[in-house]
Amino acid sequence: MSAPSMTLFQHPASPFVRKVLVLLHETGQQDRVALETVQVTPISPVPALNEGNPVGKIPALRLADGNVLHDSRVILDYFDHQHVGNPLIPRDGSARWRRLTLASMADAVMDAAVLMRYETALRPADKQWDSWLQEQRNKIRRALAELERDAIAELACHFDIASISVACALGYVDFRHPGLQWRSSNPKLAAWYAEVSQRPSMLATQPPA
Fold first, then answer.
1. Measuring CA to CA, which of 14, 68, 147, 163 is 20 to 30 A from 171?
2. Residues of the domain holding 60
3. DSSP characters over 118-172
């Protein structure tokens, strides 16, 4: 087996990283990538991560030629062009825009959940903004209600960019914000997630306990 030709800067708790790892497992590309774990927050940049990635985002992918790709959506698109199976991101037509829109909704859930985590874990309690936190919760609830109402059949038909993104978003909500108790309001989404969370790719990329 050849040595990995690329390096993925990552943290196992990040839902954005997890999306990339799940796609690598689903497409059999995980051995092509060496994982470099970095501990990064908005107030603690990592110099090695910032090389070629000045905003310090994770995931970031250093290619064999030294160039760096960053933002999970860019990295997912890159890897989806590197395997021989069916694309996990539709290449064109209405399916492309619909699946990417569902994935974007999942990314918004992740964004809100990560911001809540930063607010509660990094900001002193006396400086936390309760109404702002509540609106992040509302964003998550609205997005999950939309998925429950209009997207279950679509999510169930293919485990692709949309399904991967939604599954990773729900996994992160469970991991960092179990108090949201999203299952009681979204039983169809909960049943779908109970099934897909047992896929080998999802089990292999679970966040740390």
1. 68
2. 6-80
3. HHHHHS-GGG--HHHHHHHHHHHHHHHHHHHHHTHHHHHH--SHHHHHHHHHHHH
Q: Please tell me the number of Cα atoms within 13 Å of 109 on its side-chain side.
A: 30
How many Cβ atoms sit within 10 Å of the Cβ of residue 112? 23
CATH of the domain at 44: 3.40.30.10
Spatial neighbors of 16 by CB under 8 A, at least 6 apart, are: 58, 59, 72, 107, 110, 168
Residue 204 dihedral angles phi and psi, to the nearest 5°: -75, -15
Structure tokens at 152: 């279950």
pLDDT, tens digit (0-9, with 9 covering 90-100), for 81-122 = 999 999 999 999 999 999 999 999 999 999 999 999 999 998
pTM: 0.96
172 and 195 belong to one structural domain: yes
CA–CA dist 206, 197 (Å, integer) = 9
Closest CA to 129 of 116, 145, 139: 116
Residue written as tokens 């064999």? Answer: 64
The pairing of strands 68-70 and 60-62 is antiparallel
